[in-house]
Give the backbone structure.
Amino acid sequence: MDLQEKKLSSEEIYNGKIIRVERETVLTPDGQQAFREIVRHQGAVCVLVVDDQNRMLLVRQWREPLRQVTAEVPAGKIERGEDPQMTVVRELNEEVRLQAQEIALVNTYYTSPGFADEKMYFYVAHQLSPVAQARPQDPGEFLRLQWVTLPEAEQLIAQGEVCDAKTINAIWYWKLQQHEENK
């Protein structure tokens, strides 16, 4: 059986600064009509920042949807027409006031394909130094930086302070890389 659905129509429900929401009418593989609510997003980057002491950088900030402070890897939305690696450079400057001599793409993935098309570009950054000229942070963005070791990062997952997929993915990747280096 072919699993592809056929889009019959689409209606924009909401168009905001970060997301757009559409309601689609589709024809399912068995010939039935169904509705799909889809969140459209331009895409984002996240970056595992590792210093020369083998610590990773986390950004602590309030997340209103969760009603709590979370600890996350630096991340940000890709601006229209911006190359994802340039987004990493911009976000490192704005959020953590660092530049990296080495930035490498690890992988890409969709954050929640059941209802959103947000594509995340996961990078790792090494060989860090302070930025020469800092860009302003986004309005309303209040951040606290925290350097942690791998065991400390794993403890933050266990405590629920690291609770988002991008950061858990970064920590697991970091752990796997350390395991591979120690073979």
Q: What stands out?
A: Strands lie at 6-15, 19-27, 33-41, 44-49, 56-63, 68-72, 75-77, 98-110, 119-130, 144-148. The chain has a mean pLDDT of 95. Residues 165-181 form the longest helix (17 residues).
